[in-house]
Task: structure prediction
Amino acid sequence: MTEYEIKPKSKFSFGLKELIQYRELFYFFTWRDVKVKYKQAALGILWAILQPLVMMVMFTLIFSKALNVSSDGIPYPVFAISGLLIWNIFSNGLINSANSMVTNANIIKKIYFPRLIIPMSAILTALVDFVFALIVYVAILIYYQQGISIAKLFIYLPLSILLTIVTTFGLGSFLAALNVKFRDFQYVLPFFIQFLLFANPVLYSAKAFSDPWISFIMKANPIASAIQLCRSIFTGSVVDWQAVAMGSTVAVCLLFIGVFTFRKTEAYFADLA
Amino acid sequence: MKPILEVKNITKEFRIGAHRESYLSMRDSIASVFKKRSAEGENFLALNDVSFDVEEGQSVGIIGKNGAGKSTLLKILSRITPPTKGKIICRGRVASLLEVGTGFHPELSGRENIYMNGSILGMRKAEINKHFDEIVDFSGIEKFIDTPLKRYSSGMQLRLAFSVAAHLEPEIMVIDEVLAVGDAEFQKKCLGKMDEVSKSGRTVLFVSHDMNAIEQLCTKVVILKKGQLLQYGDTHKLISDYINEHKDFNQTNLRLTEHMKLTRLDLKNGEIASGEDLPFALTLECSTEAPPQITDLCLLLYSLKGVRVGIIDLRPHFDKIRTEGNSMVLQGLIKNLNLVEGEYAVGLYYGFEGIRKEILDITLLRIKPLADPDKKVNPYLPQYRGFVELISNIKTD
Result:
């Protein structure tokens, strides 16, 4: 028989054991969000493919045709889509998870389960979109007859996704916790995301900067590292491992800060929400 | 054998006043840095040092007035909110029927919602698969199982929700007055299920205002008053004392929803003779600019044991509500209230903007015997006469 204690919150822990115990909920929350998202759309899950495609075409017209932005010697659409794939995991994941505690307030107020499941599943939902968007990616690669190294594909792509997820989860759980208490973050977030889109080398090459300070910030930026990794699969450019290491360190720090903040406040979500 | 549930010195403190708002904006919090911390002293003890043990297989009733701490106790038990002090040792899974329908999503079909709801309530997928047909059968909505929930009537949604909850198999079951819902046939089904649950050796915690139901279902009762444990023991011994000793209601300024308050419920001193008209005046106060849409409003009459005697449905009279600034007043008369003499509790059922709730024990109503000068016989004692005085006309030819 399971025996457990209910008592005031004391020490900090990730609650990993409980997360494993409740693992099925990850699946159900993600499944629900994906289902609900596309339920009443005539095109359904096709949107997950169309959205990055439209964005790619749009940015190609603006940045490549009109502004002539350099794209590291590869066709701009390939360049843009490889950045956008990672960017979409990050931005959708961050928006989903930051709002997740508020949208699920009804459940939180009534039932106990490890709260971290909610922002985590919100990111998994963004990841499902990513899997569909990969189809566009492959199609573009074939269309432009872009040669890729298979070995790099199976190492760099998972690595860049992992880096993105860790970063998104850290920031997402941090914002989710704060959002319960201060709804201001709901309004700040869209600006923040828009700013980050242009602050990250999604649509331009990170090499465009010569200022040492900006290069340093780019190196420490985990999303920039993830995009760099994802792109080097076919640009053939050498990966700046120093940047990846710095980015990963920052990502892990963000993860700890996020989870710590979340776990510290989660017990009182039901009182606040 | 160790008790299945050990509640030890549980205390729950809430801060009221400054933190009354359901959420804070950053502006408030920045502003509060510069203000004096005046709200410091306004702590409110929802539960104060409550301890009791529950043995396996016992069914325990939890009773007390509005604000006695029943809901807080249940919330702590179901781990939604942590206690401020003390601890509870649980030796089994706790599931509560106050969670019916949690996680239901209008866009998903009945089938999908069973899986979603079941897993949130703590069932494994395999368990849901196993019970799926039973759940659908019990709810009686086979035909609509693949229809989105938003096309269900509210009764159907509730039946589906209850069916899922009824098929949980926790060691400890917490029930919070959910039985007042659904049609008669479904209610019967639910009562049967509850009986089955308590007979199968499951531990049950039951919160209710209905003392009769408590007497039938529970062997022991926990009596809470203003957050403190007043008594804990055998139901039959405690319950009649409780009824007699706790008639001190008369609540004013009751919070109904976030923005609505019941400021007064006047009932002509709360005392009339049987058969007289009872004037009543109801004052609601709204804290927002625009008064909310009122969908339901009924006065409820209860016996002191919690059995509902009658209601006064005020829905036809919404157009007669007078608005004076923030407050809304409704005055009227209950005609020929020929209740048998004794004491009754008056409550209110209300619905504002989708929230429907009832609040009991607002005030006490004393009915005096009718002073009838041409009385030919002595009336029987009140307890033999039920609730209503019926009058007959006998043919003379």
In short: Chain A is about 75% helix and 0% strand. The radius of gyration of chain A is 20 Å.
